[in-house]
Amino acid sequence: MDQSFQDHLQDHLQVHRSGRHQEGFILVAMLSLAVFVLLLGSGMAFMAQNSLQVGGNARANLRARVAADAALESGLAVLKAHSGPEQLQNLHQHVVTAPLAGEMQGTAVLSVLQHDATAVLVQMKGEGQAENHARHTSLMVVQGTHQSDPDVFAGVVSMDQVVSQGTVALQNGAILHANAGQMSLASPDLKTVEVPVPQVQSRSLLQEESCQGLLGDTLLTSQVQADALFPAKTLVCVQGNLAVAAPLVLKNTRILVQGKLTLSAGSLLENSLLEVKQTLQAEGLEVKDSSVLAQQDMVFQDLKGTGRVLLASAEHLTVVHGQQNNVPASSLTLIAQQNLSIDMQSDLQGIFWAGGKIMRSGPGKLWGAMAAVGSIDLGKGSTVVKIPGLGQDWLPGKYRFRVISRK
Question: Which UniProt keyword terms apply here (predicted)?
């Protein structure tokens, strides 16, 4: 083989090897590019998935917040629909569910923070839930103002006429007003005041409780017997008449009498609730921080009141020789669905309210008000000192609500 042929063969082999090297480099480059594109795609897919997940969580959190707010709005609607003074007492810790679809759920818990004669403060806590276990809590505080005629318990107010055989003194802004037959002391420019009839017959002090003790006709003659039959903080129902024939102490008692109740001189009713379906007659009774309600006539002879006392009759209420201890710190509320008669032997703080007439006598000064659908007879004269807000919680009317905070 000559030299030229060998040189030509060598060159050919060298060129062939060089081509193979170039093809291998291109293959490696293409594989590297494929791996890079794959990694880039995987990263972008991961980022897209993560973005979708974040977006989904954000939407779920927003839906949970919407559910919580919807629950608050539902709670506010329930509050407005049950805005009477009596109804509000039953809304404490009341749970409201919002009408939502799908995975959205919303509930609100109503808590009555404050409740007095003129205003109420309610907190609502809304809990919202949505998909992806999303949760949100919203809070709302609502204030309600009692919408009743403030002039009803602003002094001496009658829808008929007011008569007096002596001087009538009005203090602290107290008014004297009668819709018919006004006295000269009455304000001629005062608007007509509508005094509502007290609905004692529809009220009950113990309606939501069940009897834990049952008795028939009962005669109490000793303190030992009273303590055994009427244990503290226990509702005892007497299915007949109850007579207290000795001076006894009934403390922290809850008694429902289906018949008549009579109490002898010297007895003390303290921190108790007493409801009588027929008549009540009491002599020399001291009532301290207690409420007594009767569906028929109530008659008290030599009554002494201490602290916050409520006496209400669905018919007539008569108090002969009524006195009150520690007047500035006490409150005596006398309510009769028909006529009310009160002989004030001392100064009294409280309200007298009657669906019929009010007959007042005695030397005592009234710190409060009297209101009657019928006429008011002040006897030989009276002094009345206005106490703002007193008695408003008994007046029919609703609360007007406004949101004072929300977060």
Answer: Membrane, Transmembrane, Transmembrane helix
